[in-house]
Amino acid sequence: MTWVVKYLPEAEKDLKALARNRQLIVLKAIKKVKENLLPQSEGGYGKPLGNMRGTNLAGLLKIKLRGEGIRVVYKLIRTESQMLIVVIGVREDEEVYEIAQARKTKNNL
Question: Which of 28, 42, 71, 104 is positioned for an S-S bond with 38, CB 3.0–4.6 A?
Answer without folding.
Answer: 42
